[in-house]
Design a protein that fits this description.
This protein is mainly α. It folds into two domains: about 120 residues, Peroxidase, domain 1, CATH 1.10.520.10; about 130 residues, Peroxidase, domain 2 (Orthogonal Bundle). The protein is built from 14 helices and two strands. Strands 1-2 form a two-stranded antiparallel sheet. The termini are far apart. Pfam families: peroxidase. Its main location: secreted.
Length: about 325
């Protein structure tokens, strides 16, 4: 009996190790099954950004919002149907998440080259990386092998995606819940060096907060009135809104963070020194951002036989 129990324990350990190994993403997952994948994604993202530079930020935001809800599983791409409620109409995404058509275009080209092989989740991860690079930011090797979710969670999207109104303690807690540190929070927030925000999300900051440069507040008030104009846009980085650089941190040091959650990173708190460091050293920011993006991309992926490879990113098979 003792021998049997020892054998059972050993087999169980090997089984666990095998499952753990199977769950690992790998850098060249499609090397033989879809060798043209990365070229297709890069070419389509190049075309999309030439048409509209902002799309790089939009795709990056999609990836963040995907990974923060049940992991990087492509769930954010699913449309609502008569019998299915997805994440697109959750508060953090409704009328603001964009770039879905770009992912559709990439998926169509990938399917033409490698039918039923590449997940939408992996396409989104690659597109986010390429968008950053094409706007002047760093690049990194994206670990691949994710599969697509057959489910989504609007309630999780509502509760787990950080809000532009969040303070530092809330942000730190929400990132920690995903296995990300306060330093990861600060460097990943540097994604706000590109893209734009809606008036409704920064109105209170520019009219009521005191840790804000007065000239900056006046500038932003010009297209964000006290009432109305909720969807009017302003750049998250007032200096170089379509270039991926470290000016976001220079803005924070100058009290010109657009969202409350941005300025919370530099407000006599624990992240002040790191923000100050990134504001003076763009190379360090780029290096750390690439590392943090790989870490983000590994949050709870579906692998092996879990999930599926969607034929259409908007619908389960």
């Amino acid at each position: 009996m003792a021998t049997f129990m020892k054998l059972f324990v050993i087999l169980s350990i090997f089984s666990l190790l095998a499952c753990s190994t199977n769950a690992q993403l790998v850098n060249n997952f499609y090397g033989t099954t879809c060798p043209s994948l990365q070229t297709i994604v890069r070419n389509k993202m190049t075309s999309a950004i030439k048409t509209e530079p902002r799309i790089g930020a939009s795709i990056l935001r999609l990836f963040f919002h995907d990974c923060f809800v049940n992991g990087c599983d492509g769930s954010i791409l699913l449309d609502d149907t008569a019998t299915f409620t997805g994440e697109k109409n959750a508060a953090p995404n409704k009328n603001s998440a964009r770039g879905f058509e770009v992912i559709d275009t990439i998926k169509t080209s990938v399917e033409a080259s490698c039918n039923a092989t590449v997940s939408c989740a992996d396409i989104l991860a690659l597109a986010a990386r390429d968008g950053v690079f094409l706007l002047g930011g760093p690049t990194w090797v994206v670990p691949l092998g994710r599969r697509d979710a057959r489910t989504a969670s609007q309630s999780a999207a509502n509760s787990q995606i950080p809000s532009p109104f969040s303070d530092l303690s809330t942000l730190t807690t929400m990132f920690s819940a995903k296995g990300l540190t306060a330093s990861d929070l600060t460097v990943l927030s540097g994604a706000h060096t590109i893209g734009q925000g809606e008036c409704q999300f920064f109105r209170n900051r520019i009219y009521n907060e005191t840790n804000i440069d007065t000239n900056f507040a006046t500038l932003r008030k010009s297209n964000c009135p006290l009432s109305g104009g909720d969807t009017n846009l302003a750049p998250l980085d007032t200096l170089t809104p379509t270039s991926f650089d470290n000016n976001y941190y220079k803005n924070l040091v100058a009290s010109k963070g657009l969202f409350h959650s941005d300025q919370a990173l530099f407000n006599n708190g624990s992240q002040d020194n790191l923000v100050r460091s990134y504001s003076t050293n763009g190379a360090t920011f780029s290096r750390d951002f690439a590392v943090a993006m790989v870490k983000l991309s590994k949050i709870s992926p579906l692998t092996g036989t879990n999930g599926e490879i969607r034929k259409n990113c908007r619908l389960v098979n």
